[in-house]
Amino acid sequence: MPKSQWSFSTAVELNEALKAKKVSAVELTRDAIGRIERHDGRINAICVRDFDRALEAARAADAALGRGEDKPLLGIPLTAKESYNIAGLPTTWGFPEQKNFIAKEDALTVTRIKDAGGVFLGKTNVPVGLGDWQSYNDIYGTTNNPLDLTRTPGGSSGGSSAALAAGYGPLSIGSDIGGSLRVPAFHCGVYAHKPTYALVPNRGHTAPPLPPLPFSRDLAVIGPTARSAADLSLLLDVMAGPDPIEAGVAYRLELPKARHGTLKDFRILLIDTDPLLPTDTDVRRAIETLAGNLGKAGVNLTRHSPLLPDFAGSSRLYMRILMALLGANQPPEVQSRVTEALAALGPDDTSLRAERLRGIRLSHKDWLMADGERTRLRAQWRELFKSFDAVICPIMPTPAYVQDHSPEQELRTVKIDGKDFPYPDQLAWPGIATLPGLPATAIPLGLSAQGLPLGVQIVGPFLEDRTPLRLAELIEGEFGGFVPPPMFDD
Questions:
Q1: CB 395 within 8 A of CB 180
Q2: What is the Cα–Cα distance from 20 to 279, expressed in whole angstroms?
Q3: Which domains does the chain have, with CATH numbers?
Q4: Angle, helix 466-479 to helix 281-296, in steps of 10 degrees
Q5: How far apart are CA 241 and CA 226, in angstroms?
Q6: What is the pLDDT along the chain (490 residues), one digit of tens a residue?
């Protein structure tokens, strides 16, 4: 079945077409299924297919549309990251020992999306434990980048961004603690939004076999991915809001409006690199092009400010707090190796690797001290956002790289303009928004000379998600956005 006129449409466009009866939900679902069956043998983005139930939901959506019902996602096909519970489907997080775990109930956000009329096609691939910027595991294999099948689509929501880029529905949902929404969006040339911390409830986004109870995991969020900025807002509005069985979350009910409605009114601080983790020539050129375009559009653009928190200091703090969380459940043999490595560290070693090691063995007292530093960091960001409406900065230092599945991530490297840097040091750029819990919207900025996607993240004030989302829409409308990958534009 060839590409239809709707294969790369946005959810907003499909909403209008469905209401005008230009297309049916069943037609949209069959088109997405056809694309998966035709192309996914090479990409491997969809690891769990749920086509029969998707068609059943699409038929129900068409009947509802025929009755005049109006819901935000009625009849829209979409996908979910494998880590979300969907009743009757496996949830493994890539762990081989969990390959037979079947979820008994939907994650809360999945329920909300279904209630809004969304049609789930299936689930998208992830790395083991959601712990990599490449998406592969022994259960489902490797997901490839639709722009270059030898390269990573990103992780850990790599399957979701690859699915979007390939035209498998206009929306997907993922999660983010170390860039897991924003990095795949960057590598696949699509959009993603890391919400303000705790804005979207996590219930049902739970590693098996843990029960789907309400919880707020430090640093971690779940959120939307899409092929357009407006679609992010559409999906976020469905996902966000307090968990009805969780206490103390009433503040999440209403988000402020975007600070501005036109480009020229925005005050933007734009950062293109940092000595701690430089960006390569392609990334810097894309940011310079954006800077030039924003300047021509009359945006109040600043390139340096003493109000910006120290990138090196906050990155080191992020490494400690992140690894205190991720390292808590590591087996005794790993903890033993970490103890040995820590003993060999000099007290003046402030490398990011050293901070990651310290984080794994952080005492509760030291964690409390680190959390106090984070509180002061948040105050710095609040002060900054009195003078600026958004900070635009890199997501990762390089475009998508050739896949490297060597088992020890600390021994991998990433090459930045010919120089090797430790692979896990790439956490620093996503961490700029993750550590203080700020909203950040990933947007594409075209392709490199090699045909690889480039992009940036727009970091906004706490609980002001609509401000970076609106800015993303304005930039897309003025300068363009997603471009279908040539290999799969059929």
A1: no
A2: 46
A3: 11-261+416-488 (3.90.1300.10), 311-371 (no CATH)
A4: 90
A5: 20
A6: 678 999 999 999 999 999 999 999 999 999 999 999 999 999 999 999 999 999 999 999 999 999 999 999 999 999 999 999 999 999 999 999 999 999 999 999 999 999 999 999 999 999 999 999 999 999 999 999 999 999 999 999 999 999 999 999 999 999 999 999 999 999 999 999 999 999 999 999 999 999 999 888 999 999 999 999 999 999 999 999 999 887 555 444 579 999 999 999 999 999 999 999 999 999 999 999 999 999 999 999 999 999 999 999 999 999 999 999 999 888 888 888 998 999 999 989 999 999 999 999 999 999 999 999 999 999 999 999 999 999 999 999 999 999 999 999 999 999 999 999 999 999 999 999 999 999 999 999 999 999 999 999 999 999 999 999 999 999 999 999 999 999 999 9
Q: How many residues does the chain have?
A: 490
Q: Model's pTM, two decimal places? A: 0.97
Q: Write the secondary structure of the chain as one string of H (helix), E (strand) and C (coil).
A: CCCCCCCCCCHHHHHHHHHCCCCCHHHHHHHHHHHHHHHHHHHCCEEEECHHHHHHHHHHHHHHHHCCCCCCCCCCEEEEECCCCCCCCECCCCCHHHCCCECCCCCHHHHHHHHCCCEEEEEECCCHHHCCCCCEECCCEECCECCECCECCCCCCHHHHHHHHHCCCCEEEEEECCCCCHHHHHHHCCEEEECCCCCCCCCCCCCCCCCCCCCCCCCCEEEEEECCHHHHHHHHHHHCCCCCCCCCCHHHCCCCCCCCCCHHHCEEEECCCCCCCCCCHHHHHHHHHHHHHHHHCCCEEECCCCCCCCHHHHHHHHHHHHHHHHCCCCCHHHHHHHHHHHHCCCCCCCCHHHHHHHHHCCCHHHHHHHHHHHHHHHHHHHHHHHHCCEEEECCCCCCCCECCCCCCHHHCEEEECCEEEEHHHHHHHHHHHHCCCCCEEEEEEEECCCCCEEEEEEECCCCCCHHHHHHHHHHHHHHCCCCCCHHHCC
Question: Does residue 21 contact residue 180 with C-beta atoms inside 8 Å?
Answer: no
* C-alpha dihedral sign at 369, 372, 376, 378: positive
